[in-house]
UniProtKB/TrEMBL annotation:
Organism: Mucochytrium quahogii
Source species taxonomy: Eukaryota, Sar, Stramenopiles, Bigyra, Labyrinthulomycetes
A GO biological-process term: tetrahydrofolate metabolic process
Protein name as annotated: methionine synthase
Residue span(s) of domain Hcy-binding: 259-501
Superkingdom of source: Eukaryota
Pathway membership: Amino-acid biosynthesis; L-methionine biosynthesis via de novo pathway; L-methionine from L-homocysteine (MetH route): step 1/1
Family membership: Belongs to the vitamin-B12 dependent methionine synthase family.
Length: 501
């Protein structure tokens, strides 16, 4: 809303100044998507009898047009009932004023959203000619007598209401045909189409300039990042400078922009991501012993709850199994390998009382995939392989109640999801992941929490990490478990500028 240190904006100039200032901060400094900004320049009351209030309707309409011109892609909203507050008690008068105001604000100035009483809303072209003229005079401040004339008409309408209460039918009023009018057009409304060279870029200097990731995470000094770390071997995964000649034409980690490389790869050939990890573990157990004892390993042999089924724990207790599965996928032609970290959040690991292992599971999950990819890349450097850090949906949902009798109940908060995902992101990146993937999402709020955590990590580190998102349509209705279609799901997460969905 158009407020600043000096108070509420009343005039056209004040409304434009405050909104323009907010736009510059949000878009140029915060890098907030301009198409997601909604300004409310304040609809103020007219017809009060005070001369300084007479032009409030005109001020809003003119300010709306200027804001739309000077702040491209923003939306304009307003609480319309404020406009006619001086005529409360006579709905017909109020809704007639609203109809005229909305016609000018929308069709001439490009207003997008209005808070209205939809049930009572009128169309300006349905108004009687004399009522239309009275409203035009008042809203657009055409004549000095506009408020006085409308007050006289208001007194008449009150008399009509009283007559109806006494059982006297009001005279029938003819309705005029509604004619559709085109919306206002701006210079940026119909941009010239440009060739798409790649996915939309995130709002960061590293992404926009395609700055290569140095893979030297030991140099990160963010307190929030370092506070997450527990047990690890190494934090640096850059390839030695002398490994390849300076003019080597293929991808070199730390020298080249992964975003740029993936864009060319995805637009020139079919890239292959690996298949399911869980079914491969099940297949392994058909020919090999993989029971509770093997899941526990030596380290967790005295753990006080059963851990069989915690496939992510095999990263620590049976690393050869997980690395072997990665290697099989690579040998089959996969260029992208997902980490065995589908449930490696504090939230998911709480079922096994292993919340404290979240960072470690993600770190070593990424490290195993990193080792497998590097070994395969060394055999054929012309076809580099990449580690995709997998962030699963967790076993709790932010927007769905676990209690069918109380839809307001939640067993996890948005902030708890963000914290859990942030720890997972740090572990995956420290372990050598190239890409981050929010995967198999069925609740969009969980996806938004994961993307928020990734954004916080990228802001803290200044890195450019490609982000993938995969959603799950749970049945033939083509919707996620939280009820969204594929299109709605993408609209909900597009602000994060994922490279792939």
């Amino acid at each position: 809303m158009a407020f600043d240190e000096e108070g509420q904006a009343a005039t056209e100039e004040e409304k434009v100044r405050i909104c323009k200032r907010s736009y510059d901060i949000l878009v140029n400094e915060v890098r907030f998507p301009p198409e997601d900004i909604i300004f409310d320049p304040n609809v103020l009351t007219i017809g009060t009898g005070m001369e300084e209030h007479s032009n409030y309707g005109v001020d809003f309409i003119k300010a709306t047009k200027r804001i739309k011109e000077e702040c491209p892609f923003v939306k304009i909203s307003g609480g319309i009932s404020n406009l006619s507050f001086g005529f409360r008690g006579v709905t017909k008068i109020r809704e007639s004023i609203h109809a005229v105001f909305l016609e000018h604000a929308i069709l001439e100035s490009g207003m997008d959203v209005g808070i209205v009483n939809a049930k009572e809303l009128l169309c300006a072209e349905d108004l009687e000619p004399d009522m239309l003229e009275l409203c035009e005079d008042l809203v657009l401040n055409k004549i000095p007598e506009a408020t006085e004339n409308m007050l006289e008409r208001t007194a008449y309408e009150r008399a009509v209401i009283d007559a109806r209460k006494k059982g006297v039918a009001p005279p029938k009023k003819p309705r005029l045909k509604i004619v559709n009018k085109p919306r206002v057009e701006f210079s940026w409304s119909s941009p010239e189409p440009k060739a798409q060279e790649g996915p939309p870029l995130p709002y960061s200097a590293a992404a926009e300039n395609r700055v290569p990731n140095g893979y030297t995470y030991s140099k990160q000094v963010s307190d929030r990042v370092t506070a997450v770390r527990t047990r690890y071997d190494s934090l640096d995964w850059e390839q030695p400078a002398n490994l390849y000649p300076t003019d080597y034409p293929h991808f070199v980690r730390g020298r080249d922009s992964l975003r740029e490389y993936l864009t060319k790869l995805f637009t020139s050939e079919i890239a292959v991501y690996d298949g399911a990890m869980g079914t491969m573990i099940q297949n392994y157990s058909k020919d090999n012993v993989l029971e509770e004892e093997q899941y526990r390993g030596e380290r967790f042999q005295d753990w006080d709850v059963n851990v069989k089924g915690n496939n992510d724990l095999l990263t620590l207790t049976q690393p050869h199994v997980i690395k072997g599965i990665h290697t099989k996928y690579l040998e089959a032609g996969s260029q992208l390998i997902g980490t065995n970290t589908f449930s490696s959040t504090t939230i998911a690991q709480a079922d096994y009382k292993m919340e404290s292992l979240a960072y470690e599971l993600n770190y070593y999950g990424a490290k195993l995939a990193r080792e497998a990819c590097d070994e395969m890349t060394a055999k054929d450097p012309t076809k580099p392989r990449f580690v995709v850090g997998a962030l699963g949906p967790t076993n709790r949902t932010g927007s769905i109640s676990p209690d069918v009798e109380d839809p307001s109940v939640r067993n996890v908060t948005f902030d708890e999801l963000v914290e859990s995902y942030f720890e997972e992101v740090v572990g995956l990146m420290d372990g050598g992941a190239d890409i981050l993937m929010v995967e198999t999402i069925f609740d969009t709020l969980n996806a938004k929490a994961a993307l928020y955590a990734i954004t916080e990590y990228l802001e803290a580190t200044g890195l450019d990490i490609p982000v993938f998102v995969s959603g799950t349509l749970v049945d033939q209705s083509g919707r996620t478990l939280s009820g969204q279609t594929g299109e709605a799901f993408y609209a909900s997460i597009r602000h994060a500028k994922p490279m792939c969905v």
